[in-house]
Amino acid sequence: MARSTRVLPGFGPTLGLTLTWLSLIVLLPLASVFLKASNLSLSEFWNVVSAPRVVASYKLSFGMSLSAAAINAVFGLMLAWCLVRYRFPGKRLVDALIDLPFALPTAVAGIALTALYAKNGWIGQWLEPLGIQVAFKPLGVLVALVFIGLPFVVRTVQPVLEDLDVEHEEAAASLGAGRGQTFRYVLLPVLLPALLTGFTLAFARAVGEYGSVIFIAGNIPMISEITPLMIITKLEQYDYVGATAVAEVMLLISFALLLLINGLQAWTARRTGRDR
Amino acid sequence: MATAATLRRSVDPAARFEARSATREAPWVKRTLLAVALSFFALFLLMPLIAVFIEALRKGWETYFTALIEPDALASIRLTLLAAGIAVPLNLVFGVSAAWAIAKFEFRGKHFLITLIDLPFSVSPVIAGLVYILMFGAHGWFGPWLNEHDIRIVFAVPGIVLATIFVTFPFVARELIPLMQAQGREEEEAAIVLGANGWRTFWHVTLPNIRWGLLYGVILCNARAMGEFGAVSVVSGHIRGETNTMPLQVEILYNEYQFAAAFAVASLLALLALVTLGIKSWVEHNAARSGPAAQDEATAS
Fold it and tell me: In which region does residue A222 sit, left (phi positive, over 0), alpha (psi from -120 to 50) or beta (all else)?
């Protein structure tokens, strides 16, 4: 719309306030990371971000985040399906509690999961005889990241599932397809963009997650240290430049994921005809 | 009206899928899916929640309340309330103003601006804390100047507030932008043409339309503000009774093996989470009843 046809007031002040606040709180502080890291020469930067202990933390963070997002994609889809398609007692409670990981402080989740999966915990005591240790092991990181990521998948798949036209399924059924075939060839292609978006959102959150993980991980160097913890460790040793270098790597990954998520959401909107 | 509302609540939309053979699975498939999904739900969401309260009360109510009225715990509660009390209103004003500019006007770079507003969601909380150390720490950009004027920002309360503002930055804007975009600007334009000024239009036309979305954004913003751990942990300095928020107090008690006390403070935060989810469900219910979605539902049934 051309400037001359604007009837509503307040464009200048609100946009001005928005840009000022955004710059002061988010953009300038984030820029300081890149300026600080530029104090390092390229080879020094590379030495910091490719040190064995840091590389071990990337492997753990990315491996566990991918695994957790994959687990959430499977079980999150199941939960979304059950919430949309089936009637069962306690459904409203289950639906409301899906968002628990958004509302429960991460530190609380961390100590609760540790208590559950410790050797004498409710769940840990059953896993111990099987030789499975979760708390203070890399597997603990996975458990915490599954907890954190679950609502992302459920809440992106659920609305798409609710808006589906039943006509497609009826057409498939009248053509003789079984429910399995209908799901595989009719429903899954429509759900796929939302499922991938949820997967990527869960993954992006998991890579940066700190609070819930550090309690249950045990934080053993080279074995169960996540990348955000490496930043904290370097800060505690007053190695600000090193901390910033690792932070820069994480930020670049976050930005790449953000672009990917925006692309996936546009795809979801096109595939389902929803404009979000 | 009342009967329509109760009718809508009693009829689960899932019933229409279960009623048609084309959208219905064999009973064993349904039972298996429900069993697996609900077991997963119980294992990963329900049990941690219950564990918080059981662990908190393990040594009885007396220990529980003693842990809560302990001076350091009270100080942490006060600091958490203070940080949220500053961060939430500031981000509320920002969110409303950003949504007004973005939803009611056309300008270049709008999508880019929305992406920038979302940025704090995709940044690790640890980095959210780190950036303020780099700006205001002893070796930071403003460090020497602040030191000269004897102003402390990091390892003090202002740093905690700043980190809290950063991590809760997008919440209100994120809820309001799509809502206000969907509502368009005809109603506001009509009010202006009829002679109302900008503020009056906002208070009497826009605000009633966005009230549920606004409340939704504010409660989620508040939950995150009170519960933030990573970002606040980096800038806090962990001075007992001074710069510890409730989540940090939980960490300290836990690391000192005072498990009952740690879970007692944690249980307050878990209660906050439950209240947040309760209000959220209530808001969603009301928004669905007063919004256009309710009319669609009514005509469909």
Answer: left
Say if the Cβ atoms of B105 and A100 lie within 8 Å: no
Give me the amino acid identity at A95: D
CB proximity under 8 Å: B 60-89 to A: none
pLDDT digits (tens, 9 = 90+) for A147-191: 999 999 999 999 999 888 888 888 888 898 888 888 899 899 889
B208 token code pair = 């009633």
Retrieve residue A249's tokens.
Answer: 């790597």
Most distant pair of Cα atoms in chain A: their distance: 75
Do A97 and B45 lie within an 8 Å CB cutoff? Answer: yes
Stretch 214-233 of chain B: residues touching chain A, C-beta under 8 Å: 220, 223, 226-230, 233
How does the average pLDDT of chain B come out, rounded? 89
Instruction: Please give the single-letter amino acid code of residue B55.
Output: E
Identify the CATH homologous superfamily for domain A71-223: MetI-like (1.10.3720.10)
Q: Which residues contact B223 (CB under 8 A, 6 or more apart)?
A: A102, A103, B272, B273, B276
* Burial class for A171, CB neighbours closer than 10 Å (0-12, 13-18, 19+): middle
In which band, very low, low, confident or very high, does the pLDDT at B159 lie, cut at 50, 70 and 90? very high
Judged by DSSP in three states, B161 sits in helix
Q: How far is residue B298's CA from residue B276's CA, in Å, rounded to a whole number? A: 28
Which residue in chain A has the smallest CA separation from B265? A108
- DSSP states of B40-69 as a string? HHIIIIIHHHHHHHHHHTTTHHHHHHHHHH
User: No. of H helices and E strands in chain A?
Assistant: 15, 0
- Within 10 A of B65 (CB to CB), how many other CB atoms are there? 11
From residue B28, give the alpha-carbon distance in Å to each of A88, B32, B33, B295: 15, 6, 8, 36
B135–chain A nearest CA distance, Å: 7
Residue window 157-216, chain B: list those with CB within 8 Å of chain A.
162, 165-166, 169, 178, 185, 188-189, 192-193, 197-198, 201-202
Domain residue spans of chain A:
71-223
Return the number of other C-beta atoms located less than 10 Å from residue A46's C-beta: 12
Q: How far apart are CA B191 and CA A134, in angstroms?
A: 61
First and final C-alpha spacing in chain A: 21
Please choose, from the candidates B223, B55, B128, the residue with its C-alpha nearest in 3D space to the C-alpha of residue A210. B128
CA neighbours within 13 Å on the CB side: how many for B294? 15
pLDDT single digits (tens) A179-225: 888 889 989 988 999 999 999 999 999 999 999 999 999 898 999 99
A106 to chain B: which residues are within 8 Å by CB?
227, 229-230, 247
Task: Identify the DSSP state of B156.
Answer: S
What is d(CA B210, CA B178) in angstroms, rounded to the nearest whole number? Answer: 11
Could you tell me if A208 lies within 8 Å of chain B, comparing CB atoms?
yes
Helix, strand, coil tally for chain A in percent (to 5): 80, 0, 20
- State how far the alpha carbon of A210 is from the alpha carbons of A213, A216, B200, B229, B248, in Å: 6, 11, 45, 8, 13
Q: Which of A84, A98, A204 sits opposite B122 (nearest CB)?
A: A204
